[in-house]
Amino acid sequence: MPTELHLAHSPCPNDTFIYHAWTQGLLEAAPPVRLTFADIDITNTACQRGEFDVAKVSFAALPYLAQDWQLLPTGGALGRGCGPLVVTKSLRRREDLNGARIAVPSQRSTAYLLFRLWAEGISPQHVEVVSFDQIMPQVLNGTYDAGLVIHEARFTYESLGLSCLEDLGQWWESTTGAPIPLGAIVAKRELDPEPITEAIRSSLKHAWAHPEASRAYVAEHAQELSAQVCQAHIDLYVNEFSYDLGEQGRAAVETLLGRAEKIGLVPGGKSWFD
Questions:
Q1: 63-103, pLDDT tens digit by residue?
Q2: Rounded CA Rg of the chain
Q3: 56, containing H or E segment
Q4: Nearest Cα to 163, choosing from 154, 175, 172?
Q5: Which of 116, 141, 233, 244 is deepest in the core (most CB within 10 A)?
Q6: Residues 20, 203 contacting (CB under 8 angstroms)
Q7: Angle, nearest 10°, between helix axes 110-118 and 246-262?
Q8: Which residues are the active-site residues?
Q9: Between β-strands 163-167 and 126-129, what pairing exists: parallel, antiparallel or unpaired?
Q10: Sign of CA dihedral 97, 98, 101, 104
């Protein structure tokens, strides 16, 4: 184990809530850690280059990382009623996406993988990766016909005058019955996963036991979100799967990546649970 682990996760409320105690030195027995805030589009590709020691990535990125990274059973984002949305100003039907310009947060995000599964047979004119905080503004100004939004955008899109063309979480759950695997925590394979897993679980237990302790820290990094939206974000994305993926969570991941592999959306031949 290195003398200091380099951890990367997003500045979103669910991540800052979970990792606050560990990254702020409140856990006596946890390994020392250095934090980098990074959007998931960055970590998905940075991990392929070997950056960081522990990172939050998309479950959709696991097939590209399985050789050098191990999936940890804790600290991620998986649940129900928390899926990405396809938002628009003017489109009304799935078929309207034919020939459309679409903004997505990452080409290797779970959100985009769900979109591709849902939109199989649709041929957009153009799909472009856009920072998730810029997707709704650029749909509003007409740069894109539709946007794939994640995180707290599900709480704010209506107030901006956008409508939901499809809730991909509802589509996924109604199609499979499984929870939605969104964000995963991975560690380099040469690292012992046990102390890292224990540090994350201890940090989460501290957050649940002392929610007021992280409130200012969460707000500081929440990109000017209201306290109500921050709490709604935490309530939605931090749950029992954050503590332990469990059999149900593992089955959901197998379902997602198995379906994607079957139609050639992700590479096959590797196990993400070894």
A1: 999 999 999 999 999 989 888 999 999 899 999 999 999 99
A2: 18
A3: strand 54-58
A4: 154
A5: 233
A6: yes
A7: 60
A8: 151
A9: unpaired
A10: positive
